[in-house]
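By way of example, what follows is a protein record of this kind.
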Amino acid sequence: MARYKHHDYGQSKPIPVHFDRQVLPGTFEYTLSYLIEHECDLSWFEARYRNDDGGAPAYDPAILLKIILFAYSRGITSSRAIARACEENVVFMALSADSRPHFTTIAAFIASMGEGAAQLFCDVLRVCDEQGLSERERRTLETLEGKLAKVRTWLAEGEDKLGRSGRPVNSNLTDNDSAKMASSHGVIQGYLGVTVVDSAHQTIVHAQAFGEAQEHALLRPMLEGVREQLPGRRGADVLREASVSADRGVSHQRERVLAGR
């Protein structure tokens, strides 16, 4: 018969929890707590309370803001779930100093924040700007604006790149003669280099770069290039008596490549 380690649900184990040691520097909750305590102006909350001389004490707005914003960062938006987290999660306990506000208190606080939320947001942005955290976003915006201006200029002054069929194909703002093509490094913007080689001596007799991704339509222009590079004797066509072979990229054309045909 199988044997298992002994366990007893009836036993107890006291675990001391120091709330001020649960929120560790370098964590989001520590930063959130610090900003609310030291950088955000919460004085606008004072006008909401009229319990200086009587009535029950209110929850500290800083406490409610900490647990609500921390809950939102974790994807918790229900006031009931936030209240339950303050009873079950040690980080929520630490942020709230184990004050355990009721879910109705949390819901009412959220619903009544109004313009205060906008002021709080502005305070956080101010701190981010002071720390230089918004520089990257500013540079990104400037870069995007520059690219947008370049696109607008090209649309106003540039010409469409036409394919073999005479219809417009994908254009490129930097080099409109180039084309998108697959490579071992992914899709790149570039040119397709094609060469013609003399089979007898392995000499390159013509080479040309094309801004096209496929070789299908390049056999004829390459042969025309050979004719221009190697004029035959006494004006004869150098390809008249030649045999031409090509790889599979252009072989499906089935065009007659010998001169005079």
About this structure: Strands lie at 161-162, 168-169, 179-183, 186-190, 192-198, 203-210. The two ends are 92 Å apart (CA to CA). Confidence is low (pLDDT under 50) at residues 252-261. The chain is about 40% helix and 10% strand.
